[in-house]
Write a structure and sequence with these properties.
Largest sheet: 2 strands, parallel
Oligomer: single chain
Structural class: alpha+beta
Bound molecules: zinc ion
Radius of gyration: 30 Å
Shape: rod-shaped
Number of helices: 2
Strand order of the largest sheet: 1-2
Length: 85
């Protein structure tokens, strides 16, 4: 559902009329007002993007001693490279 924010026209009557007719929230007669509004909006986002959960790395553990395997998939404790089943 789009939201009609601001209608802008150099003639105040036209801007006000269009605002009522089309259901805009605001009207203005200077496009620089719009730019100002956009800037303040950009500075304070109303709908921040939700944090995308990072998939946690699957931890593997040594099949012999249960130590966490390192990035190479080897046990730093006993050099075993077979993870737990
Ligand atoms: Zn081990």
């Amino acid at each position: 559902m789009p939201v009609l924010k601001t209608i802008c026209d150099i003639v105040p009557e036209i801007a006000a009329d269009a605002k009522e007719r089309f259901g805009f929230e605001k009207c203005c007669t200077d496009w620089r007002d719009l730019r100002q509004q956009l800037r303040s909006k950009a500075a304070q986002p109303q709908n921040p993007q939700p944090q995308v959960p990072q998939s946690a790395p699957v931890a593997k553990f040594c099949g012999k001693c249960g130590s966490p395997l390192n990035e190479a998939g080897k046990c730093p404790n006993c050099d075993n490279n077979q993870p737990q089943a």
